[in-house]
Amino acid sequence: MTARIIDGVALAEKIKEEVSVRTAKLIQQGIKPGLAVILVGADPASQVYVRNKAAACQKAGLHSIVEQYGEGLSEADLLARIDALNNDPAIHGILVQMPLPKHINAHRVIEAIAARKDVDGFHVSNAGLLMTGAPLFIPCTPYGVMKMLESEQVVIRGAVAVVVGASNTVGKPMALLLQAAGATVTICNSKTRDLGWHTRHADIVVIATGRPSMITGDMIKSGAVVIDVGINRGADGKLCGDADFQSVQQVAGALSPVPGGVGPMTIAMLLVNTIEAAERTLAK
Ligand SMILES: Nc1nc(=O)c2c([nH]1)NC[C@@H]1CN(c3ccc(C(=O)N[C@@H](CCC(=O)O)C(=O)O)cc3)C=[N+]21
User: Fold this and answer.
1) Distance 213 CA to ligand 1 centre (A)
2) How far is CA 213 from the centre of its chain?
3) Which of 27, 66, 74, 185 shows a CA-CA span of 20 to 30 A to 3?
4) Do 92 and 34 touch, CB atoms closer than 8 A?
5) Which atom of ligand 1 is nearest to the CA of 270?
6) Does ligand 1 come within 6 angstroms of the Cβ of 168?
7) What is the Å distance from ligand 1's center to 25 Cα?
8) Domain Tetrahydrofolate dehydrogenase/cyclohydrolase NAD(P)-binding spans what residues (predicted)?
9) Can 59 be counted among the known catalytic residues?
10) ipTM, two decimals
11) Where are the beta strands (DSSP E) in the chain?
12) From the CA of 49, how far away is ligand 1's center (Å)?
């Protein structure tokens, strides 16, 4: 078998077109949806993502600002900026690019963002709302993965799903979303004993460990759907995921590539969350 390659770029384009339509409607009603992205430090990969986010906003007609600060920015100064953006009516979504420098407490920073503007869905109150089945913002990456599964018409109800990686940003919300959709979910991690035993039983495997070639074809059930959330930069400078593409492709029924899979979907869902935040201000 050769896996279908799930085209995240094409699906993201479709979603961003829908965002453009909703943006135009909002603008007619006097609201220009606005996203603020804060970047602290000069990590080159972060700069690329932030630039991609800003470009996607511009293209969809959203107002976007990028605030870039040096590595030495104090936590107090960052919290003061967040406070200002919380109170800025032109800004509906706030994203603080992770990771932050060591001297800044990321948890405190996330909690400082107003939950109604937390388009990443990282705030504890948004995590709690997702866990209890009444989400306000679904974290962009797992939200994008659900859209990819939907577009592939993957049956989630009754399926066995394995999520490899248990981060607050991807693995944990991913598991909750799959579970809410009716899957039986196992959360594994890079230390799981006999990881292949778990993944070989899965109809759906989502990998988010940050370790290249962590999952190989022999660990995948024939016909399973494999979603690769990893982004690793090889010594050759090329991006690769956490799955060994060559071997998984020969066994899986569908596989998301890196690049061109989950990454573009993450950005599309960020725009969806921002537009939803803006639409909510109208409803009141
Ligand atoms: N508060 C916060 N929210 C985030 O959503 C967040 C974050 N911090 N920190 C970093 C990660 C990573 N992330 C990506 C988004 C898009 C691509 C993406 O578009 N990737 C392209 C390739 C881009 C390239 O060429 O480097 C692709 O996979 O095809 C990748 C990674 C969002 N993150």
Assistant:
1) 19
2) 21
3) 185
4) yes
5) 5
6) no
7) 28
8) 139-280
9) no
10) 0.97
11) 4-5, 34-40, 63-69, 93-96, 160-164, 184-188, 204-207, 225-228, 232-233, 239-240, 254-255
12) 5
pLDDT digits (tens, 9 = 90+) for 5-20: 999 999 999 999 999 9
Residue 241 Cβ < 6 Å to ligand 1: no
Q: Is the CB of 140 under 6 A from ligand 1?
A: yes
pTM of this structure: 0.98
Tell me which amino acid residue 234 is.
Answer: G
Helical residues (DSSP H) of 217-261, grouped into ranges? 245-249
97 labelled catalytic: yes
For residue 282, the model assigns a pLDDT of 87
Flag residues of the chain having pLDDT under 70. 283-284
Rounded CA Rg of the chain: 19
Per-residue pLDDT, 1: 76
* pLDDT at residue 54 in the model: 95
* Residue 29 among the catalytic residues: no
Whether residue 231 has its Cβ less than 6 Å from ligand 1:
yes
